[in-house]
Design brief:
This protein has 15 helices and 21 strands. It is of the alpha/beta class. The chain binds flavin-adenine dinucleotide. Flavin-adenine dinucleotide binds at residues 12-18, 37-40, 45-48, 52-56, 58, 183, 206-207, 238-240, 242, 246, 265, 314, 323, 389-392, 422, 425-430.
Length: 488
Protein backbone atom coordinates (compact mmCIF):
# COMPACT_ATOMS: atom_id res chain seq x y z
CA UNK A 1 0.00 0.00 0.00
CA UNK A 2 1.38 3.46 -0.82
CA UNK A 3 1.83 5.89 2.06
CA UNK A 4 -0.72 8.69 2.39
CA UNK A 5 0.71 11.89 3.79
CA UNK A 6 -1.38 15.04 4.04
CA UNK A 7 -0.24 18.50 2.90
CA UNK A 8 -1.78 21.98 2.80
CA UNK A 9 -0.90 22.19 -0.90
CA UNK A 10 0.36 19.71 -3.48
CA UNK A 11 2.05 21.20 -6.55
CA UNK A 12 2.32 18.97 -9.62
CA UNK A 13 5.24 19.85 -11.91
CA UNK A 14 8.72 21.25 -11.40
CA UNK A 15 8.65 24.22 -13.81
CA UNK A 16 8.80 27.98 -13.26
CA UNK A 17 5.09 28.25 -12.44
CA UNK A 18 5.15 25.82 -9.50
CA UNK A 19 8.46 27.30 -8.33
CA UNK A 20 7.10 30.87 -8.40
CA UNK A 21 3.85 29.86 -6.68
CA UNK A 22 5.62 27.94 -3.92
CA UNK A 23 8.05 30.82 -3.24
CA UNK A 24 5.22 33.38 -3.07
CA UNK A 25 3.34 31.12 -0.66
CA UNK A 26 6.38 30.25 1.47
CA UNK A 27 7.16 33.94 1.89
CA UNK A 28 3.54 34.65 2.84
CA UNK A 29 3.18 31.69 5.19
CA UNK A 30 6.21 29.83 6.60
CA UNK A 31 3.94 27.13 8.10
CA UNK A 32 2.16 26.01 4.92
CA UNK A 33 2.99 22.33 4.33
CA UNK A 34 3.84 21.93 0.65
CA UNK A 35 5.13 19.19 -1.62
CA UNK A 36 6.17 19.39 -5.30
CA UNK A 37 5.90 16.27 -7.48
CA UNK A 38 7.94 16.15 -10.71
CA UNK A 39 7.86 13.18 -13.10
CA UNK A 40 11.34 13.70 -14.62
CA UNK A 41 14.54 13.10 -12.71
CA UNK A 42 15.17 16.83 -12.25
CA UNK A 43 13.21 20.07 -12.08
CA UNK A 44 13.15 22.53 -14.98
CA UNK A 45 13.57 19.96 -17.75
CA UNK A 46 10.55 20.90 -19.89
CA UNK A 47 9.49 24.33 -21.23
CA UNK A 48 11.17 26.23 -18.39
CA UNK A 49 14.59 24.83 -19.31
CA UNK A 50 16.77 27.52 -20.91
CA UNK A 51 17.31 25.57 -24.14
CA UNK A 52 13.62 24.72 -24.48
CA UNK A 53 12.40 28.33 -24.67
CA UNK A 54 13.71 31.52 -26.24
CA UNK A 55 14.45 33.34 -22.98
CA UNK A 56 12.78 36.58 -24.01
CA UNK A 57 11.60 38.77 -21.18
CA UNK A 58 8.28 39.36 -22.97
CA UNK A 59 7.43 43.00 -22.33
CA UNK A 60 5.89 43.85 -25.73
CA UNK A 61 8.98 45.95 -26.49
CA UNK A 62 9.55 44.15 -29.78
CA UNK A 63 6.81 41.51 -30.33
CA UNK A 64 4.30 42.80 -32.85
CA UNK A 65 1.60 40.27 -32.00
CA UNK A 66 0.56 42.21 -28.88
CA UNK A 67 -0.46 45.14 -31.07
CA UNK A 68 -1.32 44.11 -34.63
CA UNK A 69 -3.20 46.28 -37.12
CA UNK A 70 -6.94 45.59 -37.00
CA UNK A 71 -8.60 44.05 -40.09
CA UNK A 72 -9.20 47.52 -41.60
CA UNK A 73 -5.51 48.41 -41.29
CA UNK A 74 -5.79 50.67 -38.24
CA UNK A 75 -3.43 50.29 -35.31
CA UNK A 76 -5.43 49.34 -32.18
CA UNK A 77 -4.78 50.99 -28.83
CA UNK A 78 -1.55 50.19 -27.02
CA UNK A 79 -3.47 48.74 -24.06
CA UNK A 80 -2.51 45.07 -24.53
CA UNK A 81 1.17 45.92 -25.09
CA UNK A 82 1.16 48.11 -21.96
CA UNK A 83 -0.51 45.35 -19.95
CA UNK A 84 2.10 42.74 -20.99
CA UNK A 85 4.87 45.22 -20.21
CA UNK A 86 3.47 45.87 -16.72
CA UNK A 87 3.20 42.11 -16.06
CA UNK A 88 6.86 41.63 -16.95
CA UNK A 89 7.73 44.60 -14.77
CA UNK A 90 5.99 42.82 -11.86
CA UNK A 91 8.29 39.84 -12.50
CA UNK A 92 11.32 42.17 -12.46
CA UNK A 93 10.12 43.59 -9.15
CA UNK A 94 9.60 40.13 -7.65
CA UNK A 95 13.01 38.86 -8.83
CA UNK A 96 14.64 42.04 -7.46
CA UNK A 97 13.11 41.42 -4.04
CA UNK A 98 14.30 37.78 -4.19
CA UNK A 99 17.85 38.89 -5.04
CA UNK A 100 17.79 41.30 -2.08
CA UNK A 101 16.47 38.53 0.21
CA UNK A 102 19.15 36.10 -0.95
CA UNK A 103 16.57 33.69 -2.43
CA UNK A 104 18.12 34.20 -5.86
CA UNK A 105 21.84 34.46 -6.51
CA UNK A 106 23.68 37.16 -8.47
CA UNK A 107 21.39 38.59 -11.20
CA UNK A 108 23.86 37.71 -13.97
CA UNK A 109 23.20 34.02 -13.24
CA UNK A 110 19.69 34.40 -14.73
CA UNK A 111 19.08 37.79 -16.41
CA UNK A 112 20.97 40.07 -18.82
CA UNK A 113 20.28 43.31 -20.66
CA UNK A 114 19.82 42.59 -24.35
CA UNK A 115 18.26 45.38 -26.45
CA UNK A 116 14.93 44.41 -28.00
CA UNK A 117 14.48 45.29 -31.67
CA UNK A 118 11.76 44.90 -34.27
CA UNK A 119 12.85 44.65 -37.90
CA UNK A 120 10.48 44.84 -40.89
CA UNK A 121 10.73 45.08 -44.67
CA UNK A 122 8.42 46.49 -47.34
CA UNK A 123 6.23 49.61 -47.44
CA UNK A 124 3.24 48.11 -45.58
CA UNK A 125 5.21 46.83 -42.59
CA UNK A 126 7.46 49.91 -42.48
CA UNK A 127 4.37 52.12 -42.24
CA UNK A 128 2.90 49.83 -39.56
CA UNK A 129 6.09 49.88 -37.47
CA UNK A 130 6.30 53.67 -37.68
CA UNK A 131 2.71 53.99 -36.46
CA UNK A 132 3.38 51.50 -33.67
CA UNK A 133 6.47 53.45 -32.63
CA UNK A 134 4.48 56.72 -32.53
CA UNK A 135 1.81 55.07 -30.37
CA UNK A 136 4.39 53.78 -27.87
CA UNK A 137 7.18 56.35 -27.73
CA UNK A 138 5.49 58.56 -25.13
CA UNK A 139 4.23 55.72 -22.97
CA UNK A 140 6.24 55.82 -19.72
CA UNK A 141 6.91 52.06 -19.73
CA UNK A 142 8.37 52.27 -23.25
CA UNK A 143 10.69 55.21 -22.52
CA UNK A 144 13.73 55.31 -24.75
CA UNK A 145 12.32 53.39 -27.72
CA UNK A 146 13.98 54.49 -31.00
CA UNK A 147 12.89 54.14 -34.62
CA UNK A 148 14.87 54.27 -37.85
CA UNK A 149 14.46 53.59 -41.57
CA UNK A 150 18.09 54.34 -42.22
CA UNK A 151 20.39 51.49 -43.39
CA UNK A 152 23.41 53.00 -41.64
CA UNK A 153 21.64 53.44 -38.30
CA UNK A 154 20.17 49.93 -38.38
CA UNK A 155 23.62 48.61 -39.33
CA UNK A 156 24.96 50.18 -36.11
CA UNK A 157 22.26 48.41 -34.10
CA UNK A 158 22.53 45.01 -35.83
CA UNK A 159 25.41 44.85 -38.34
CA UNK A 160 25.02 41.20 -39.39
CA UNK A 161 21.43 41.90 -40.42
CA UNK A 162 22.48 44.61 -42.88
CA UNK A 163 25.69 43.23 -44.38
CA UNK A 164 24.92 41.70 -47.78
CA UNK A 165 21.35 43.07 -47.81
CA UNK A 166 20.31 44.63 -51.12
CA UNK A 167 18.96 48.16 -50.87
CA UNK A 168 15.26 47.98 -49.94
CA UNK A 169 12.65 49.60 -47.73
CA UNK A 170 13.36 48.56 -44.14
CA UNK A 171 12.70 49.89 -40.65
CA UNK A 172 13.54 48.98 -37.09
CA UNK A 173 12.80 49.96 -33.53
CA UNK A 174 15.22 49.43 -30.66
CA UNK A 175 14.96 49.75 -26.90
CA UNK A 176 17.76 49.25 -24.38
CA UNK A 177 15.64 47.99 -21.48
CA UNK A 178 15.04 44.56 -23.15
CA UNK A 179 16.21 41.39 -21.42
CA UNK A 180 17.30 37.81 -21.99
CA UNK A 181 16.26 35.56 -19.13
CA UNK A 182 17.53 32.09 -18.26
CA UNK A 183 14.23 30.77 -16.90
CA UNK A 184 15.86 27.39 -16.28
CA UNK A 185 18.51 28.82 -13.92
CA UNK A 186 15.83 30.92 -12.23
CA UNK A 187 13.61 27.86 -11.66
CA UNK A 188 16.50 25.79 -10.29
CA UNK A 189 17.48 28.55 -7.86
CA UNK A 190 13.89 28.93 -6.64
CA UNK A 191 13.60 25.19 -5.99
CA UNK A 192 17.00 25.11 -4.26
CA UNK A 193 15.76 27.79 -1.85
CA UNK A 194 12.40 26.05 -1.33
CA UNK A 195 14.19 22.87 -0.27
CA UNK A 196 15.92 24.85 2.49
CA UNK A 197 12.51 26.06 3.66
CA UNK A 198 10.92 22.67 4.30
CA UNK A 199 9.20 22.30 0.95
CA UNK A 200 9.52 18.69 -0.23
CA UNK A 201 10.54 18.46 -3.88
CA UNK A 202 10.24 14.88 -5.13
CA UNK A 203 11.57 14.15 -8.61
CA UNK A 204 10.84 10.95 -10.61
CA UNK A 205 7.30 11.09 -9.19
CA UNK A 206 4.68 10.99 -11.93
CA UNK A 207 1.12 11.86 -10.96
CA UNK A 208 -1.34 9.52 -12.66
CA UNK A 209 -4.57 9.94 -10.70
CA UNK A 210 -6.35 12.85 -9.05
CA UNK A 211 -9.64 12.33 -7.26
CA UNK A 212 -11.71 13.63 -4.35
CA UNK A 213 -12.20 11.64 -1.16
CA UNK A 214 -13.83 13.02 2.01
CA UNK A 215 -13.26 16.62 0.93
CA UNK A 216 -9.57 16.08 0.16
CA UNK A 217 -7.78 15.66 -3.16
CA UNK A 218 -5.95 12.36 -3.46
CA UNK A 219 -2.90 12.63 -5.70
CA UNK A 220 -1.57 9.23 -6.70
CA UNK A 221 1.12 7.98 -9.02
CA UNK A 222 4.33 6.11 -9.48
CA UNK A 223 7.98 6.80 -8.78
CA UNK A 224 10.82 4.69 -10.10
CA UNK A 225 10.13 1.62 -7.97
CA UNK A 226 6.91 2.13 -6.01
CA UNK A 227 3.55 3.80 -5.88
CA UNK A 228 2.70 6.94 -3.90
CA UNK A 229 -0.46 8.65 -2.76
CA UNK A 230 -0.70 12.01 -0.98
CA UNK A 231 -3.71 14.07 0.05
CA UNK A 232 -4.43 17.75 0.37
CA UNK A 233 -7.34 20.19 0.41
CA UNK A 234 -5.62 22.04 -2.48
CA UNK A 235 -3.75 21.04 -5.63
CA UNK A 236 -1.93 23.24 -8.13
CA UNK A 237 -1.44 21.61 -11.53
CA UNK A 238 1.72 23.22 -12.92
CA UNK A 239 2.26 20.33 -15.30
CA UNK A 240 2.85 22.41 -18.45
CA UNK A 241 1.50 20.59 -21.51
CA UNK A 242 0.11 17.79 -19.36
CA UNK A 243 -2.11 20.11 -17.31
CA UNK A 244 -5.07 19.41 -19.60
CA UNK A 245 -4.76 15.67 -19.06
CA UNK A 246 -4.53 16.01 -15.24
CA UNK A 247 -7.41 18.48 -14.99
CA UNK A 248 -9.48 16.08 -17.11
CA UNK A 249 -8.55 13.26 -14.69
CA UNK A 250 -9.67 15.48 -11.79
CA UNK A 251 -13.06 15.66 -13.56
CA UNK A 252 -13.69 19.33 -12.74
CA UNK A 253 -16.45 20.74 -14.92
CA UNK A 254 -14.45 23.92 -15.67
CA UNK A 255 -12.13 21.95 -17.98
CA UNK A 256 -15.00 20.76 -20.20
CA UNK A 257 -14.68 21.92 -23.78
CA UNK A 258 -10.98 22.82 -23.47
CA UNK A 259 -8.34 21.26 -25.67
CA UNK A 260 -4.71 21.93 -26.44
CA UNK A 261 -2.95 22.00 -29.75
CA UNK A 262 0.72 20.95 -29.73
CA UNK A 263 3.34 22.77 -31.81
CA UNK A 264 6.97 21.72 -31.64
CA UNK A 265 9.78 24.19 -32.27
CA UNK A 266 13.28 24.02 -33.74
CA UNK A 267 15.89 26.78 -33.65
CA UNK A 268 19.16 27.41 -35.42
CA UNK A 269 22.02 28.10 -33.01
CA UNK A 270 25.53 29.48 -33.49
CA UNK A 271 28.41 29.86 -31.06
CA UNK A 272 30.75 31.33 -33.71
CA UNK A 273 32.51 33.98 -31.56
CA UNK A 274 32.74 36.48 -34.40
CA UNK A 275 29.00 36.38 -35.10
CA UNK A 276 28.11 36.34 -31.41
CA UNK A 277 30.26 39.42 -30.77
CA UNK A 278 28.66 41.31 -33.66
CA UNK A 279 25.01 40.77 -32.76
CA UNK A 280 23.70 41.97 -29.42
CA UNK A 281 19.92 42.13 -29.63
CA UNK A 282 16.71 40.16 -29.68
CA UNK A 283 15.19 41.02 -33.04
CA UNK A 284 11.57 40.08 -33.72
CA UNK A 285 9.82 40.48 -37.05
CA UNK A 286 6.43 40.03 -38.65
CA UNK A 287 4.93 36.53 -38.60
CA UNK A 288 4.20 34.64 -41.83
CA UNK A 289 0.51 34.50 -42.86
CA UNK A 290 -1.32 31.98 -40.66
CA UNK A 291 1.55 31.60 -38.21
CA UNK A 292 0.57 31.51 -34.54
CA UNK A 293 2.09 34.41 -32.53
CA UNK A 294 4.55 32.08 -30.83
CA UNK A 295 6.04 31.30 -34.24
CA UNK A 296 7.12 34.87 -35.01
CA UNK A 297 10.70 34.61 -36.36
CA UNK A 298 13.41 36.14 -34.22
CA UNK A 299 17.20 36.38 -34.03
CA UNK A 300 18.31 36.39 -30.45
CA UNK A 301 21.31 36.86 -28.25
CA UNK A 302 21.12 34.19 -25.51
CA UNK A 303 23.21 33.95 -22.37
CA UNK A 304 23.06 30.50 -20.80
CA UNK A 305 25.47 29.20 -18.14
CA UNK A 306 27.67 32.24 -18.72
CA UNK A 307 28.09 31.43 -22.43
CA UNK A 308 26.66 33.68 -25.15
CA UNK A 309 25.22 32.30 -28.38
CA UNK A 310 22.76 33.35 -31.06
CA UNK A 311 19.57 31.56 -31.98
CA UNK A 312 17.17 31.96 -34.84
CA UNK A 313 13.72 30.46 -35.20
CA UNK A 314 11.39 28.94 -34.36
CA UNK A 315 10.54 26.53 -37.14
CA UNK A 316 7.23 25.02 -36.16
CA UNK A 317 6.52 21.32 -36.47
CA UNK A 318 3.53 19.18 -35.72
CA UNK A 319 3.76 16.27 -33.36
CA UNK A 320 1.13 14.89 -31.05
CA UNK A 321 3.03 15.25 -27.75
CA UNK A 322 1.98 17.88 -25.20
CA UNK A 323 5.43 17.79 -23.54
CA UNK A 324 8.87 17.32 -25.12
CA UNK A 325 9.13 14.18 -22.96
CA UNK A 326 5.46 13.38 -23.50
CA UNK A 327 3.67 10.65 -25.44
CA UNK A 328 2.47 10.39 -29.03
CA UNK A 329 -0.91 9.49 -27.52
CA UNK A 330 -1.22 12.90 -25.77
CA UNK A 331 -3.38 14.58 -28.41
CA UNK A 332 -5.65 11.60 -29.26
CA UNK A 333 -6.10 10.72 -25.56
CA UNK A 334 -7.16 14.29 -24.74
CA UNK A 335 -10.16 14.14 -27.07
CA UNK A 336 -13.45 13.82 -25.17
CA UNK A 337 -17.10 14.04 -26.08
CA UNK A 338 -17.05 17.49 -24.42
CA UNK A 339 -14.18 18.98 -26.48
CA UNK A 340 -14.36 17.28 -29.88
CA UNK A 341 -16.40 20.19 -31.28
CA UNK A 342 -13.74 22.62 -29.99
CA UNK A 343 -10.98 20.67 -31.76
CA UNK A 344 -12.92 20.32 -35.03
CA UNK A 345 -14.06 23.94 -35.17
CA UNK A 346 -10.50 25.19 -34.55
CA UNK A 347 -9.21 23.01 -37.39
CA UNK A 348 -11.91 24.34 -39.75
CA UNK A 349 -11.72 28.01 -38.70
CA UNK A 350 -7.92 28.23 -38.72
CA UNK A 351 -7.21 26.96 -42.18
CA UNK A 352 -4.29 29.42 -42.72
CA UNK A 353 -2.69 27.96 -39.57
CA UNK A 354 -3.05 24.43 -40.94
CA UNK A 355 -1.48 25.52 -44.25
CA UNK A 356 1.31 27.31 -42.36
CA UNK A 357 2.07 24.19 -40.28
CA UNK A 358 2.08 21.91 -43.32
CA UNK A 359 4.53 24.29 -45.05
CA UNK A 360 6.73 24.41 -41.95
CA UNK A 361 6.79 20.63 -41.54
CA UNK A 362 7.92 20.13 -45.12
CA UNK A 363 10.47 22.98 -45.09
CA UNK A 364 13.79 21.61 -46.33
CA UNK A 365 17.11 22.54 -44.69
CA UNK A 366 17.76 24.82 -47.67
CA UNK A 367 14.44 26.64 -47.12
CA UNK A 368 15.20 26.99 -43.41
CA UNK A 369 18.53 28.57 -44.28
CA UNK A 370 16.72 30.95 -46.66
CA UNK A 371 14.47 32.04 -43.76
CA UNK A 372 17.60 32.69 -41.68
CA UNK A 373 19.11 34.70 -44.55
CA UNK A 374 16.11 37.04 -44.47
CA UNK A 375 17.61 38.09 -41.11
CA UNK A 376 21.31 37.40 -41.70
CA UNK A 377 21.90 37.71 -45.46
CA UNK A 378 25.46 36.35 -45.27
CA UNK A 379 24.62 33.37 -43.01
CA UNK A 380 26.77 30.31 -43.75
CA UNK A 381 25.46 26.76 -43.30
CA UNK A 382 28.50 25.62 -41.34
CA UNK A 383 27.94 28.23 -38.61
CA UNK A 384 24.38 27.24 -37.68
CA UNK A 385 23.12 23.98 -36.14
CA UNK A 386 19.45 23.07 -35.81
CA UNK A 387 18.20 21.87 -32.40
CA UNK A 388 14.85 20.97 -30.90
CA UNK A 389 13.38 23.34 -28.28
CA UNK A 390 10.35 22.72 -26.05
CA UNK A 391 6.87 21.66 -26.97
CA UNK A 392 4.09 24.25 -26.84
CA UNK A 393 0.53 23.30 -26.07
CA UNK A 394 -1.66 26.11 -27.40
CA UNK A 395 -5.00 26.56 -25.64
CA UNK A 396 -8.25 25.75 -27.44
CA UNK A 397 -10.95 27.52 -25.45
CA UNK A 398 -14.69 26.78 -25.71
CA UNK A 399 -16.58 29.94 -26.67
CA UNK A 400 -20.29 29.76 -27.52
CA UNK A 401 -20.09 26.02 -28.09
CA UNK A 402 -17.16 26.27 -30.53
CA UNK A 403 -13.40 26.21 -30.03
CA UNK A 404 -11.19 29.30 -30.27
CA UNK A 405 -7.39 29.21 -30.41
CA UNK A 406 -6.22 31.28 -27.48
CA UNK A 407 -2.78 32.86 -27.43
CA UNK A 408 -1.80 33.27 -23.83
CA UNK A 409 -1.80 31.56 -20.47
CA UNK A 410 -5.20 30.41 -19.23
CA UNK A 411 -5.88 29.71 -15.54
CA UNK A 412 -8.50 26.99 -14.99
CA UNK A 413 -9.76 26.55 -11.43
CA UNK A 414 -12.63 24.70 -9.80
CA UNK A 415 -15.47 26.84 -8.41
CA UNK A 416 -14.35 26.15 -4.82
CA UNK A 417 -10.72 27.11 -5.63
CA UNK A 418 -9.42 23.75 -4.35
CA UNK A 419 -7.67 22.93 -7.63
CA UNK A 420 -6.19 25.18 -10.31
CA UNK A 421 -3.98 24.61 -13.31
CA UNK A 422 -2.46 26.47 -16.23
CA UNK A 423 -2.96 25.86 -19.92
CA UNK A 424 -1.10 27.59 -22.75
CA UNK A 425 2.21 29.21 -23.49
CA UNK A 426 3.32 32.73 -24.44
CA UNK A 427 3.97 35.15 -22.72
CA UNK A 428 4.40 32.33 -20.22
CA UNK A 429 7.45 32.39 -18.02
CA UNK A 430 7.84 36.20 -18.29
CA UNK A 431 4.55 36.78 -16.53
CA UNK A 432 4.80 33.92 -14.02
CA UNK A 433 4.57 36.35 -11.10
CA UNK A 434 1.24 37.89 -12.17
CA UNK A 435 -0.21 34.53 -13.18
CA UNK A 436 0.68 32.94 -9.85
CA UNK A 437 -0.57 35.91 -7.83
CA UNK A 438 -3.89 35.52 -9.66
CA UNK A 439 -3.91 31.78 -8.87
CA UNK A 440 -3.16 32.58 -5.20
CA UNK A 441 -6.21 34.85 -5.00
CA UNK A 442 -8.39 32.05 -6.38
CA UNK A 443 -6.99 29.27 -4.20
CA UNK A 444 -6.43 31.14 -0.91
CA UNK A 445 -9.05 33.95 -0.99
CA UNK A 446 -9.35 34.02 2.81
CA UNK A 447 -5.65 34.86 3.22
CA UNK A 448 -5.52 37.79 0.84
CA UNK A 449 -5.56 40.64 3.35
CA UNK A 450 -2.78 39.15 5.43
CA UNK A 451 -0.64 38.50 2.37
CA UNK A 452 -1.17 41.81 0.61
CA UNK A 453 1.32 43.50 2.92
CA UNK A 454 4.14 41.17 1.88
CA UNK A 455 3.14 41.34 -1.77
CA UNK A 456 3.14 45.15 -1.65
CA UNK A 457 6.77 44.98 -0.54
CA UNK A 458 7.98 42.47 -3.10
CA UNK A 459 5.73 43.42 -6.07
CA UNK A 460 4.81 47.07 -5.41
CA UNK A 461 3.18 47.52 -8.85
CA UNK A 462 0.69 44.65 -8.38
CA UNK A 463 -2.82 46.12 -8.57
CA UNK A 464 -1.59 49.51 -9.90
CA UNK A 465 -1.56 50.86 -13.44
CA UNK A 466 2.11 51.76 -13.64
CA UNK A 467 1.94 53.32 -17.08
CA UNK A 468 -0.65 55.86 -15.86
CA UNK A 469 1.85 57.22 -13.34
CA UNK A 470 5.08 58.28 -15.14
CA UNK A 471 7.09 58.84 -11.97
CA UNK A 472 6.14 55.41 -10.52
CA UNK A 473 6.92 53.76 -13.88
CA UNK A 474 10.36 55.44 -13.95
CA UNK A 475 11.00 54.51 -10.34
CA UNK A 476 10.09 50.85 -10.88
CA UNK A 477 12.17 50.56 -14.06
CA UNK A 478 15.24 52.17 -12.55
CA UNK A 479 15.02 50.40 -9.15
CA UNK A 480 14.70 46.96 -10.77
CA UNK A 481 17.45 47.81 -13.28
CA UNK A 482 19.77 48.72 -10.41
CA UNK A 483 19.14 45.55 -8.39
CA UNK A 484 19.14 43.23 -11.41
CA UNK A 485 22.18 45.03 -12.92
CA UNK A 486 20.28 45.90 -16.11
CA UNK A 487 20.35 48.92 -18.39
CA UNK A 488 17.51 51.27 -17.42
C1 LIG B 1 9.82 26.97 -27.91
C2 LIG B 1 9.36 27.80 -26.75
C3 LIG B 1 9.77 29.12 -26.63
C4 LIG B 1 9.33 29.90 -25.55
N1 LIG B 1 9.82 31.16 -25.42
C5 LIG B 1 9.48 31.90 -24.35
C6 LIG B 1 10.08 33.17 -24.15
O1 LIG B 1 10.91 33.61 -24.94
N2 LIG B 1 9.70 33.88 -23.06
C7 LIG B 1 8.77 33.40 -22.16
O2 LIG B 1 8.47 34.10 -21.20
N3 LIG B 1 8.19 32.20 -22.32
C8 LIG B 1 8.54 31.43 -23.38
N4 LIG B 1 7.99 30.19 -23.55
C9 LIG B 1 6.95 29.75 -22.60
C10 LIG B 1 7.53 29.28 -21.28
O3 LIG B 1 8.65 28.45 -21.50
C11 LIG B 1 6.46 28.54 -20.50
O4 LIG B 1 5.30 29.35 -20.40
C12 LIG B 1 6.88 28.18 -19.08
O5 LIG B 1 8.16 27.59 -19.05
C13 LIG B 1 5.84 27.22 -18.51
O6 LIG B 1 6.25 26.85 -17.22
P1 LIG B 1 5.48 25.69 -16.48
O7 LIG B 1 6.06 25.59 -15.12
O8 LIG B 1 4.01 25.91 -16.58
O9 LIG B 1 5.73 24.37 -17.36
P2 LIG B 1 7.02 23.46 -17.57
O10 LIG B 1 8.29 24.18 -17.44
O11 LIG B 1 6.78 22.69 -18.83
O12 LIG B 1 6.96 22.48 -16.33
C14 LIG B 1 5.94 21.51 -16.19
C15 LIG B 1 6.54 20.37 -15.40
O13 LIG B 1 5.50 19.46 -15.03
C16 LIG B 1 6.02 18.15 -15.11
N5 LIG B 1 4.89 17.23 -15.20
C17 LIG B 1 4.00 17.14 -16.20
N6 LIG B 1 3.09 16.17 -15.93
C18 LIG B 1 3.42 15.67 -14.72
C19 LIG B 1 2.85 14.63 -13.93
N7 LIG B 1 1.78 13.94 -14.33
N8 LIG B 1 3.43 14.34 -12.74
C20 LIG B 1 4.54 15.05 -12.31
N9 LIG B 1 5.11 16.03 -13.05
C21 LIG B 1 4.55 16.33 -14.24
C22 LIG B 1 6.89 18.21 -16.36
O14 LIG B 1 7.82 17.16 -16.41
C23 LIG B 1 7.55 19.58 -16.22
O15 LIG B 1 8.75 19.52 -15.50
C24 LIG B 1 8.42 29.37 -24.59
C25 LIG B 1 8.02 28.04 -24.69
C26 LIG B 1 8.50 27.25 -25.75
C27 LIG B 1 8.10 25.81 -25.80
Amino acid sequence: MPTTRQYDLILVGGGIMSATFAVLLRQANPDLKMIVLERLDNVSMESSNAWNNAGTGHAALCELNYMPDDPSGNLPSAEKAISINQQFQESREFWSSLVKDGVLGEPETFIHSVPHMTFVQGAKDVSYLERRFKALKDQPLFAGIEFSKDFEQIAKWAPIMIEGRPSSEIAATRIEQGTDVDYGALTEQLFAWLKTKDVEVLTSHEVRALYRNNGLWQVAGKNTDSKFEFSSPRVFVGAGGWALKLLQKAKIKEINGYGTFPVSGHFFKTENPELVARHQAKVYSQAAVGAPPMSVPHLDTRVIDGKTSLLFGPFAGLNLKFLKNGSWLDLPASIRFGNIVSYLSVALKNFPLVIYLVKEIFKSSKQKLESLREFVPNAKTEDWQLYEAGQRAQVIKPVNGLGVLQFGTEVISSADGSIAGLLGASPGASVATRVMLDVATRMFPESQNAWMKGIANSVPSYGLKLNDDPSKARESLSATAKTLKLKA
